[in-house]
Amino acid sequence: MQTCKIVTLMDQKVVIQKTIEFVKESLADAEGGHDWWHIYRVWNLSKQIARNEKVNMLVIELGALLHDIADAKFHEGDENIGPERALNFLTSMGVDPQIISHVENIIRHISFKGGSHSQEFKSAELKVLQDADRLDAMGAIGIARTFNFGGYKGRQLYDPETEPQPGMTKEEYKKSNSPTINHFYEKLLLLKDRMNTRTGKSMAEQRHLFMEQFLEQFFGEWRGDI
Ligand code: ADP
Ligand code: NI
User: Fold this and answer.
1) Are 131 and 200 in contact (CB under 8 A)?
2) Which residues contact 91 (CB under 8 A, 6 or more apart)?
3) Which of 15, 142, 149, 176 is deepest in the core (most CB within 10 A)?
4) Using CA atoms, how far apart are residues 117 and 135, in angstroms rounded to an integer?
């Protein structure tokens, strides 16, 4: 029995190592906010949050590593390509079908996308991974990623005449072309109240505060007050 368990753990280490290589290769040309280093941070955060939760660590690690393997917004809106790539990869690695199906469901449901659609899949592992992904959208890193994405899309920093539209539907959110500052009101500032776990909620507080301070400074400088 003992040997059997060790073999399983060794297998898990190999699967994770191979998954890291697969993800790095797949994201080699990714935009700076959705590259390997986003995955790496979410992977780290999810392991940290999972310490205080009752979850399957293989699902957490594989879910974190594969959650943005082929983001729909970089693949003509195709929401199946990411989960399918993960499914094919994990199947080729001989991973337990139950674990594969759980990871696939996590990839399909982790995203914010307006935040107003009902959530039909639930699991403790999804809650941890959502929190980790949301934390990386907040604070200094969140600000950096957001302006990088805006630049990548050729968007304005800010336009006083274009009001933010919080509470957009999933379709409106996906189509939105608004200035980068608006994204704070449409997504980033809403995240603090959407955290699932105790650890996630507590880490979100400081990151939220930092974004509020950033916005205060930004508008102060915009008006020329500071
Ligand atoms: P989710 O998967 O939760 O829907 P996204 O992949 O859409 O998250 O967003 C991840 C990050 O990419 C955001 O937190 C933000 O930094 C950046 N981003 C996405 N959409 C926009 C946008 N419309 N304007 C500026 N930044 C964006
Ligand atoms: Ni992500």
Assistant:
1) yes
2) 100
3) 142
4) 20
Distance CA 204, CA 139 (A): 8
pLDDT over 60 at 159, yes or no: yes
Mean pLDDT computed over 94-105? 96
Rounded CA separation 177/128 (Å): 30
* pLDDT tens digit sequence for 33-69: 999 999 999 999 999 999 999 999 999 999 999 999 9
Which residues sit with their C-beta closer than 6 Å to ligand 1? Answer: 33, 71, 111-113, 137, 142, 145-146, 149-150, 176, 180, 183
Q: Around Cβ 124, how many Cβ atoms within 10 Å? A: 16
Our mutation pick for probing the ligand 1 site, out of 187, 188, 190, 195, counting the most ligand atoms within 8 A of Cβ, is 187
With a cut of 80, say whether residue 115 has pLDDT above it.
no
How far, in Å, CA of 142 to CA of 212, rounded? 12
CA distance 154 to 26: 24
Nearest-atom number in ligand 1 for the CA of 150 is: 25
